[in-house]
Protein: Anti-sigma factor antagonist
Organism: Melghirimyces thermohalophilus
Amino acid sequence: MNVTIQEETRSEQVSALVVSGEVDAYTAPQLREKLMPLCKENREIYLDLSRVDYMDSTGLGVLIGAYKQLRSGGGRLVLTGMSPRLKRLMKITGLTEILDIEDGV
């Protein structure tokens, strides 16, 4: 399966990405390519995961990398619209303790 990533600028230092499809070992590099440059340019990034069907550990690694990059510059990564399955994955891995997760999109 493929992944599509749409970027939306909300303000000068706030961006959003809408991710659709599966984020796995094959598609995670595409997400990293889009997300990491934004981490250097923005203070806040909203990642809409409402259309993500599946995410593996490679995808989680991308999220952690973005979190660390933003955090080092005083920014934040906000995950929105996660399915119950993704929320469960975040909880099992302990990421709910460090990542900002919002229910809405």
User: Anything to note?
Assistant: Helices lie at 28-41, 57-72, 84-93. The mean pLDDT is 92.
